[in-house]
Amino acid sequence: MNDTSRKLANKTGVITGGARGIGLAIARGYLEQGAAAVIADIDQAAIDEALETLRGEGHPANRLMGVRLDVCDGQSIEAMVAAVTERFGGIDILVNNAAIFEMAPVLEVSEASYDKQFAVNVKGLFFTLQAVARSMVERGQGGAIINMASQAGRRGEGLVSMYCATKAAVISLTQSCALDLIKHGIRVNGIAPGVVDTPMWEEVDAQFAHYENRPLGEKKRLVGEAVPFGRMGRPDDYAGAAVFLASDDSRYVIAQTLNVDGGNWMS
Predict the structure, then answer these.
(1) Which residues of the chain fall short of a pLDDT of 50?
(2) Catalytic annotation on 163?
(3) What pLDDT is stored for residue 248 in this prediction?
(4) Which residue ranges form the domains of the chain, and what is each CATH number?
(5) Which of the residues 114, 163, 211, 252 is marked catalytic?
(6) Residue 96 neighbours by CB under 8 Å, 6+ apart
């Protein structure tokens, strides 16, 4: 398949939190469909490792870029937009994937944890979206923005109240931003993963083990068995949905958050 026949040929996609896990899998999917992929992450060492991995897989260096990005810092966001625009001429696709997760019973949630999770998962997502959308409007070619939500944004969980609240906010922002930006040809949609087998789940499992008095590994096993598909998600399970929402195949899809969770949640 040549580049011009691929779904994202001649597009540039920025993936925040793109150095590992779902973000890296989406970057790989974009490269396979002809796009340039920008790995935007707060961890420079992880960016370097991701770029080395992708180059080692045969992806062309001229369609790869790494940018250190702190979504909690407006100047960092603006610098990322400027750097990508200088390198590739503009941004066609934004995947707002950067997020953090913390757990505690409601009576133990700290103000610091509340502030940190909302700062990254909601404020950081929104102002990255705003900065990229402004650049898309100025360029005049429209674009696609994909916000990574979660099945946790569809319901409450006693031990995960703040994370659930942030992801519910992501779903709501996806709807509002989509309705406002479509007049500029910018399509905004979301993806809601379920439980995903990434390195972060080792930490999540350890927290559940602490709060629910379980052996290490038991919670991860149980949630995987509970998925109707029969297993936890894997990072590459999300690349196809991210390609679809970034491509012309979804040109009439606006303000939706697509559940990609093996059947865990139906809405």
Answers:
(1) 1
(2) yes
(3) 97
(4) 12-196+235-260 (3.40.50.720), 197-232 (no CATH)
(5) 163
(6) 16, 125, 128, 129, 145, 146, 147, 148, 170
